[in-house]
Amino acid sequence: MAKQLPKTDVVIVGVGWAGGIIAAELGKQGLKVIGLERGRERSIKDYTMVHDELRYGIRYELMQDLSKETVTFRNTLKEQALPMRQLGSFLLGEGLGGAGVHWNGHTFRFLPYDFEIKTQTIKKYGANKVKDLQIQDWGISYDQLEPYYDKYEKTAGIGGEENPFAGKRSNPYPNPPMKDTPLTDRFKKAAKNLKLHPYQMPSANMTKPYENPYGAKMSPCQYCGFCERFGCEYGAKADPTVAVIPFAKNTGNFEYRTYSNVTQILHDGKKATGVRYIDVQTNEEFEQPAEIVVVTSYVMNNARLLLNSKLGRPYDPNTGEGVIGKNYCYQILPGTTGFFEDEEFNTFMGAGALGATLDDFNGDNFDHSNLNFIHGGSITLNQSGYRAIQHNPVPSDVPSWGKEFKQASLKYFTRSINIGAQGASMPAKMNYLDLDPTYKDAYGQPLLRLTYDFTEQDKNLYDFIGKQTDKIMKEMGASKINDRKTLEHYDIVPYQTTHNTGGVIMGADPGTSAVNNYLQMWDAENVFVVGASAFPHNGGYNPTDTVGALAYRASEGIIKYSKQGGILV
Asked: Which residues are catalytic?
């Protein structure tokens, strides 16, 4: 029997970037907020002098325990989905701060094209260009979201320089860009020789001492190379446990509870009444009543919690009806590894978001009239710091094991570089999320089932962008470049990116979207679902800046709802 707790104004499920921002904004308005985080507490002191690649980079210290909860996967409806037993394609975080603790810090705004992708694509190229894609506009424009981008970038202390293809900014970045290195400088020169437009990547790694609007003080980056999969011991990487959660607590209106795994949103069919959660240390069950429920856990967990709570209309891929689980998207990752026989580089040094990027082939920044795909991707040389265990590229004509591999691995550790691309992922009817009918987690809840495979759109985009990264690498003077395999079927085993999106998408039409542009559910007006789960498609960038902007937008909506109720417009 679940223990009934006193009612609160707002309960938040998941305390990362989105949950932390919403707690801070609501707390300063006097709303009583409880945050439920199923992982443990974290702070900077946990990472002091812990540059342990084996523990964090290989054994995933900061990630979800798959022995208790995982996802099942299949490529098509005809296949039997099986559980992901080992973290691979993406890394599901856990603990206070969420993935905002172990991210690299890449902080791009989506392009204006992204938010009105269907309208703009049909207007320019005609309806046939999108006939096999399940794309839709977001129900908000870039100009409407821009002030919220500005708020998040000030909170996270983003440093960067102007991107010639970006939407208009109301303010410059609050910090200068990261340092140029011989490699980023070489990339920029090669790109310019090819008549392209490189710029320094926007970064959440501090470039100088910085104090954000919440009074959080962050230190300048040490360029140690331990960002991705690691917490920052210097407080030099914007992190919710540094940037927003302390302020939220200091309002006196926010309490967070760790080791609290929410298993169900309680509701009466029209509105939520609270949540049910389990203390994962004692297995005690609690019910936390609330006037407003805010779901800010990871993409997949957002969709799974709604499905397990029977809240919203599940998506049916056969009919295209329903919205929860719809438009799951990933990213397309072409790129080029180059080898330099007579040069060495200090590639073991770097920072998570130290790099140079270009957007000439992103969004609709180039003509797609004669191309068999839409959108594109950003192209980046990222000097994040190669680590000894995980980084061992060799030319494609070298065996992948044995003496020759070991010799080549040692030789090319400082003689190889990579140019990567983040290709946009467009939604397809048969790529979606639902509940697995067979497998359950440690608490008896059905696992989330992922049905996903690459489409012809994906394969064509991959091939096109890969040819562009090859050209730049050759212009940089590589002695040889690795052959790139063709994109075939998606495999959940090798790590690719943790930029999963969709499942609880936003829009202007309740028939085709789960939430409105305040991230408020159409089917339950006092439930707000915030995160990359709201993206109707995935763009050519990292999602965090857009997640942060949407969190500020949602905060505004929740405050309005607390005063007036009803569906917000």
From this structure: 499
Whether the CB-CB separation of 427 and 502 falls below 8 Å is answered with: yes
Model-wide pTM > 0.85: yes
User: What is the distance in angstroms between the CA of the first residue and the CA of the last residue of the chain?
Assistant: 40
Q: Which residues contact 13 (CB under 8 A, 6 or more apart)?
A: 19, 36, 262, 265, 275, 293, 294, 295, 296, 297, 305
Q: What are φ and ψ of residue 114, in 5° steps?
A: -60, -40
**β-strand partners of 83:** 72
Distance from C-alpha of 556 to C-alpha of 136, rounded to nearest angstrom:
24
pLDDT over 80 (residue 50):
no
What's the mean pLDDT in 224-246?
94
Q: Which whole-number Å values give the CA distances from 366 to 331, 334, 363, 465, 488, in the listed order?
A: 19, 18, 8, 12, 25
19 contacts: CB under 8 Å, gap ≥ 6: 12, 13, 35, 37, 98, 240, 294, 296, 297, 530
Give the pLDDT of residue 46: 87
Which neighbouring-strand residues pair with 378? 422
Torsions phi, psi for 258 (to 5 deg):
-85, 170
- At which residue do the structure tokens 């394969």 appear? 459
Q: Residue 419 is inside which H or E element, if any?
A: strand 416-423
Is 15's pLDDT higher than 80?
A: yes
Tokens found for residue 295? 């779901």
Tell me the C-alpha distance between 458 and 133, whole Å: 11
Question: What is the per-residue DSSP string for 296-358?
Answer: -S-HHHHHHHHHHTT-S-B--TTT----BTEEEE--B--EEEEE-TT----TT-B-TT-EEEE
Contact criterion met (CB below 8 Å) for 146 and 168: yes
Residue boundaries of the structural domains of the chain: 3-564
At 306, give phi and psi (nearest 5°): -65, -40
Mean pLDDT of the chain: 96
Q: Residue for token digits 């964090």?
A: 56
Name residue, tokens 């705004």. 109
Residues whose CB falls within 8 Å of the CB of residue 185, separated by 6 or more in sequence, listed in order: none
144: left (phi over 0), alpha (psi -120 to 50) or beta: alpha
The more confidently predicted of residues 234 and 248 is 248
Contact present, 349 and 383 (Cβ < 8 Å)? yes
Angle between helix 182-193 and 456-475 (nearest 10): 110
Q: How far apart are CA 311 and CA 71, in angstroms?
A: 20
The CATH number of domain 3-564, selected from 3.40.50.1820, 3.40.50.300, 3.40.630.30, 3.50.50.60: 3.50.50.60
Place 164 in a pLDDT band, splitting at 50, 70 and 90: very high
Other C-beta atoms within 10 Å of 76: how many?
Answer: 10
Q: Which two tokens stand for residue 465?
A: 């962008």
- H/E stretch holding 438: strand 432-440
Specify whether the CB–CB gap between 36 and 117 falls below 8 A.
no
